[in-house]
Design brief:
This protein is 41% helix and 18% strand. The protein is of the alpha/beta class. It folds into two domains: 56 residues, no CATH class; 245 residues, TIM Barrel (Alpha-Beta Barrel). The strands form three sheets. The protein has an eight-stranded parallel beta barrel, surrounded by five helices. Strands 1-2-4-6 form a four-stranded mixed beta sheet, with helices on one face. A two-stranded parallel sheet has the order 3-5. The longest helix is centred in the C-terminal third of the chain and has 19 residues. The structure holds phosphoenolpyruvate.
Length: 311
C-alpha cells in the first residue's frame, strides 16, 4: 500500500482485501485508487459499497458520476413541481459524489428550475435546436434553455432519431450550439436490435460518435457527456447486461481517446441508459467505464429514482 500525496488516497498494487477497505474507512478516506491489475476480493467490494467507499482506477480520478432523469412527455405542471420539490427535499441524503439532473418537458422547465434553485439537483432539457432565434416554429434554442435555468441538454435521444428525423448531422449542429451557449450536452448513441443481431453494434456506435462530434475542438469535447442507450433496451424492460454495456462504454472511451487524447477520454462521463431500475443500477455502476445513468421510466417516481441515485 502506498499513500498518494496528490489525491490523499491509498493505492494498492495487487490484491485489495476487506482488511484494506476497513483500514481506509478507519483513516476517514472514502476513495481507494486501484490499478487495472488489482484483484479486488468480493468481500472487499461489498464492504466498500456498504460504507460508500469508491474504488477508482488510475486515470479515472476526475470522472464525475451523473444520474439524469429523462421525464420524456410526462408530468403536468403540478406533477412536475411536486416531484422536483420532493427530490429537492431528499437531496441532502444523496451521496455527495453523484450529480443529479432532471429533464422535464419544455413546459415545466422554468417552474421546475425555480423549485430546485439552491439545491444540488440540476436542470436539463430533452432537446433543442441549433439556431439562436428566428422563424423556427415549435423550436427552442440553447440560450432560451439557459435562460430557463438549464445546465444540461439531451441530444440525439433514440426517440428523436426514430420519430423526429434526428440524424448524426443534426446532432452535430445542435451539439456545437449547445456548447457555445455554455450548456452541457448529454449526447445519446446506441444501436437498434437488428444492428446488434447483425454484429454491427460497434460500427454503428463509431459512426454516431465520429459524425456527431465532427469538427469539435479538444476543448469543446471536454465539455461533453455521452449516454450509451441501446435502442432495444429503452422502455422495454430489457436492460443490457453489465458486460454488454461495458464493452460499448470501453469502446466509446477508446474512440474518444483516439480523437481527443488521454485527458478528454479519461474525464468523459459515459452514462448507460435503457430500463435502469433500482435492482440493476449497482451492477452496471460496478463497471469501470460506466459513470452514471440516463433513466427514463424509473425517474418518474420519487422512490425509484431516489433508490437509483442511492444505489
Ligand atoms: C431514456 O429515456 O433515455 C430511457 C433510457 O428510458 P427507460 O429508462 O425507460 O428505458
Amino acid at each position: 500500500m502506498k499513500f498518494d500525496e496528490k489525491y490523499g488516497i491509498k493505492s494498492f498494487k495487487k490484491v485489495l482485501s476487506v482488511v484494506d477497505v476497513l483500514a481506509t474507512l478507519r483513516s476517514g478516506n472514502r476513495i481507494i485508487k486501484i490499478t487495472d491489475d488489482t484483484l479486488v476480493t468480493s468481500l472487499a467490494k461489498e464492504t466498500a459499497r456498504k460504507h460508500n467507499i469508491t474504488l477508482i482506477k488510475k486515470g479515472e480520478e476526475m470522472r464525475r458520476k451523473i444520474i439524469a432523469g429523462n421525464w420524456k412527455m410526462h408530468k403536468t405542471l403540478k406533477e412536475a413541481v411536486d416531484l422536483a420539490g420532493n427530490l429537492k427535499e431528499r437531496a441532502s441524503q444523496f451521496p455527495s459524489d453523484r450529480e443529479v439532473v432532471i429533464c422535464p418537458p419544455f413546459t415545466a422547465l422554468s417552474v421546475v428550475g425555480e423549485v430546485i434553485k439552491g439545491s444540488p439537483v440540476k436542470l436539463g432539457a430533452q432537446n433543442t435546436f441549433w439556431e439562436e432565434k428566428g422563424a423556427y416554429t415549435g423550436e427552442v434554442s440553447p440560450p432560451m434553455l439557459k435562460d430557463a435555468g438549464c445546465q444540461y441538454v439531451i441530444i440525439g435521444h433514440s426517440e428523436r432519431r426514430q420519430y423526429f428525423g434526428e440524424t448524426n448531422y443534426s446532432v452535430n449542429k445542435k451539439m456545437k450550439k449547445v456548447l457555445e451557449s455554455g450548456l452541457t450536452p448529454i449526447v445519446c448513441v446506441g444501436e437498434k436490435l437488428q444492428e446488434r443481431e447483425d454484429g454491427k453494434t460497434l460500427s454503428i456506435i463509431e459512426e454516431q460518435v465520429r459524425e456527431g462530434m465532427e469538427g469539435l475542438s479538444t476543448e469543446e469535447a471536454s465539455g461533453l457527456v455521452v449516454a450509451y442507450e441501446p435502442v432495444w433496451a429503452i422502455g422495454t424492460g430489457k436492460t443490457a447486461t453489465p458486460q454488454q454495456a461495458e464493452e460499448v462504454h470501453d469502446f466509446i472511451r477508446k474512440k474518444i481517446r483516439e480523437l481527443y487524447g488521454e485527458e478528454v477520454a479519461n474525464n468523459l462521463p459515459i452514462l448507460y441508459g435503457g430500463s435502469i431500475k433500482p435492482q440493476n443500477i449497482a451492477s452496471l455502476m460496478e463497471c469501470a467505464n460506466i459513470d452514471g445513468g440516463l433513466v427514463g421510466g424509473a425517474s418518474l417516481e420519487l422512490e425509484s429514482f431516489s433508490q437509483i441515485i442511492n444505489y
